[in-house]
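As a representative case, we now present a protein record of this kind.
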Amino acid sequence: MKKLLLLLMMGIFGLGCSQQTPKVLKKGFSKEALAQKLEDEDGKTVTIQQILDQHKGKVLVIDFWAGWCRDCLNALPKARELEEKNKNIDFVFLSLDRSKEGFDRSLEKFEMKDKENYWFSSGWKNDFNNYVDLNWIPRYMVIDQKSAIAKYYAITPEDPEIQATIDKLLK
């Protein structure tokens, strides 16, 4: 009986604690998602649309992360390798830290100050994250030169589809 109860509890808790690939892999962004506001390191407000506009014409990798996220921190060395291997593309880091102080602390502690960082001051549940089905971090997306989504869902920087997508876009 104890084993059955333990298995049942693991199943219940496991449902809420795993990444599940979205049923629809989107290729673009909604108007509401593009209007989502974030803050840069200086506290200046910027929208997703403005971020995409800054990188138009380039391949862009979006990395969702947070300093409190063990999986994100474990992935950080491989994310850095991906960035190092692809110096000709852009990387943007979107933080889900819970406060501006936490965001600032994470950038310092994990040596992210030299990267392009933004923070969701509105928290996890917002128009952009809801639209892209953000259910776990880390999460990676590849955006093409026209600001369309080329790779919608990757949960590790080692996902071979990330590099394959980048290579295909650069041909």
